[in-house]
Amino acid sequence: MQVNFVVCQLFALLAAIWFRTYLHSSKTSPFIRHVVATLLGLYLALFCFGWYALHFVIQSGISYYIMIIIGVENMHKYCFVFALGYLTVCQITRVYIFDYGQYSADFSGPMMIITQKITSLAFEIHDGMFRKNEDLTPSQRCLAVRRMPSLLEYLSYNCNFMGILAGPLCSYKDYITFIEGRSYQLQQSEANGKEDTKYEQTDPSPNIAVAQKLLICGLSLLFHMTITKTLPVEYNIDDNFRATASWPVRFFYLYVSLMAARPKYYFAWTLADAINNAAGFGFRGYDKNGVTHWDLISNLRIQQIEFSTSFKMFLDNWNIQTALWLKRVCYERATFSPTIQTFILSAIWHGVYPGYYLTFLTGVLMTLAARAIRNNIRHYFVESPAVKLCYDIITWMATQLAISYTVVPFVLLSVKPSFTFYSSCYFCLHIASILVLLILPLKRTQKGSKKHESVQPVWSKKLEEENLLQKNSYSTTNNSFSQKQEITCRYQALKQ
């Protein structure tokens, strides 16, 4: 099945190049582009998953019917419950009836992406067609959909060949803008907040971006096939290893084994991003110098992941589109305990393996404890560059260790091996997190709230400043729909 997946994705890459060349929006109507994208997507799903692919159509079809008959006031709730419930039922049958612990027929993977799209669009339509504009956050206002999509548009959004196998999630407005081929424009923002005149730009080429991402895919695949297999995560619970290895050796192996488990995700998500880019989708905009950036729907930032100095920094750069989905449909709308609700939703969405729930429950503790530590002590270590560098190195080591400790059950899947690992560590980080939460207040101290709001380590500060500048100045605009992600709406948010 993994071979089928890679073959299908490589076929999708070639199809994407053909799609952009011969079915470009300047040559073909949106109707034809929708039809071809949908049919190719369903064909790939059928080839990769057989008749399990019918679940994709069934889930999308019933969700669309719910949207039509329920109405815009409550359809987001019904769509959310149905889509997540249908996904959960499919995951239960796959895991506990067919092949526990195996990924040979993991048709629930594409369903996870479709569930994100169904629920995201339902909330976006609810925001655009029912809620008052002044009640929306800036990001919700940017993403709000003002008309009901047709069935073809809905199926194309959910099941297009570019994202049906590995995503990533994108907003409905971004996808429709791409299909309809609206002009790319440059919008520069002046220091006083006013916008310069917008003028049409030529259709940018994604070739360089695609080549760079394919290179990353090749390196990630090579690492996975050579190094990853020599560093199994399961060795962390090997009886002989636990009995003979010292604590420093055990923690070092914990870190390198979990780091070695990441390249397969780098490969899958970067290849999916390259496929979308090859089709012409994923252009975020030009910066003030006219440089193109193809990361509108990118799902990870490898450098920031490997050099994260906080739990939040890691989560913000890992599976980015899923993090945005959790924020938009849960965190921003939760009436109480948004952090806990968001982690629970994330666990349910990921599947029914007990290890997922252990990971995300542990993640709640780690996130709250890390936030408390950062808010209470960080401002003491940022005055001197040398002290700040030492602080960044220590927090990098602590973050990587905490991340590795947290995600072990996610890889091991079952309860027994997960508790074997945690008990062999005497639940040390769980206990430490609880003690931190009992001793330190969660809210930022007065001194810390007034100064030093930056979250970047010393070695990545310049890069992150450039990214922030780009996020404030990029945008791709149009008349009735706007190709803007939440990150491109932040400039407008600052003005309000």
From TrEMBL:
One GO term under biological process is: lipid modification
Subcellular location, principal: endoplasmic reticulum
Can you name a GO cellular component term? endoplasmic reticulum membrane
Q: Which GO terms describe its molecular function?
A: acyltransferase activity
Q: Where located? A: Endoplasmic reticulum membrane
Any idea which UniProt keywords this protein has? Acyltransferase, Endoplasmic reticulum, Membrane, Transferase, Transmembrane, Transmembrane helix
- Name the domain of life: Eukaryota
| Record's keyword annotation contains Endoplasmic reticulum | yes
Question: Which residue spans traverse the membrane?
Answer: 35-58, 78-97, 355-373, 393-415, 421-442
The way this protein sits in the membrane is described as: Multi-pass membrane protein
Q: Does the keyword Transmembrane apply?
A: yes
Q: Under which name does UniProt file this protein?
A: Membrane bound O-acyltransferase domain containing 2
